[in-house]
Write a structure and sequence with these properties.
Layout: E1 24-28, E2 31-35, E3 39-41, H1 42-49, E4 55-59, E5 74-76, E6 82-87, E7 103-107, E8 110-114, E9 118-120, H2 121-128, E10 134-138, E11 146-148, E12 153-155, E13 161-166, E14 174-178, E15 181-185, E16 189-190, H3 192-199, E17 209-216, E18 225-227, E19 234-235, E20 241-248
Parallel strand pairs: 1-6, 7-13, 14-20
Antiparallel strand pairs: 1-2, 3-5, 4-6, 7-8, 9-12, 10-11, 10-13, 14-15, 16-19, 17-18, 17-20
Length: about 250
Amino acid sequence: MTTNEDNIGGGENRRETRNDGSRWNLLVDDTLIASPGRHVKASVVRFQAGLTTDQALVRDLFSPNDLLIDDDSLLDLVEGNVFVSRPVTECCRDGDHGSPAKLAWFVDDRFEISNRPSQTGLSIRELFGLPADITLLRDHESPDDLPVEEGDAVRFEDGPVFISRGDSGHGKDITIIVNLREKKVKPGTITFEKVVELGFDEPPVGGNLMFTVTYRRGPTENPEGSMVAGGNPVKLKERMIFNVTATDQS
């Protein structure tokens, strides 16, 4: 889902709402609205939510206090990305600002509400009930969506929007880097022999060749290490990096 300031009605505020790489969504009355970034003008949100002049935009707190937001305010979604509409006559401009704001986390355009800005990959998976064969990735504006392992720290300020991908045999291929080149492979595990095969367009030949395989940026179970011929396969992770070298022992 690609959004920019032009298609959300905020082109005049392009510099202020520039995205930092992670996608940002917000809710107004439980309706998902894609934001151009972490910062967005209240007038943009009002327009996309279809609010009328007698409706106020209010940041939803874990509190009965409804504080009216001026149209020219620049909203920082880190301070809360859940909003509701209220009749203007029922809102005030002053009140208890110490109440925690509701935070909406998103996976595949589904959302769950929390007041905890610090999560883990595991807690996000549990919050959305993701099965074990699903890979969780932080959704970025670029094609390089970042995999999130169960033990990874997940901060709301880094972006609350994620996508999931099936890791079964029928799932999409993932990208790994072998000798600085991108290779598409099936998710799951990979053997030493397969990595060596992917490491060369024309594999070197010779009776005394020895291949060495090392890897890094792997999953929590095997973040880095080496592989040996005939050894156990290693679990893969999106954008995992492998290095294959061939040495002539003669």
